[in-house]
Amino acid sequence: xxxxxxxxxxxxxxxxxxxxxxxxxxxxxxxxxxxxxxxxxxxxxxxxxxxxxxxxxxxxxxxxxxxxxxxxxxxxxxxxxxxxxxxxxxxxxxxxxxxxxxxxxxxxxxxxxxxxxx
Length: 118
Hints:
It is a single chain. By secondary structure, the protein is an alpha/beta fold. It has two helices and six strands, in the order ββαββαββ. The chain has a single domain, classed as Cysteine protease Prp (Alpha-Beta Plaits), CATH 3.30.70. Strands 1, 2, 3, 4, 5 and 6 form a six-stranded mixed sheet that branches. The two termini are about 15 Å apart.
């Protein structure tokens, strides 16, 4: 399984009113970090969409792939780490794809950092 899809055009955007996502693959682990709240008019819808994507990832890793990700959640924060495997790579790549689609539709509200791989 190759790396997740390339980042959307919004990658690297430094807008402080942005929901930002980043992905790292290091030492046999995949880590997805999503932080921030969008402050644009679309903020509620975009933040809800981001939440649904990352919560679905957590559930799919647990219930479908039978993996137990380590998850940290707080207001405006979702941090997930899971063992790198074919199943986890596919599920994380699917989530990144959804986040990229949001970033393309709402570049003023969502930004995705380029993935970092070991």
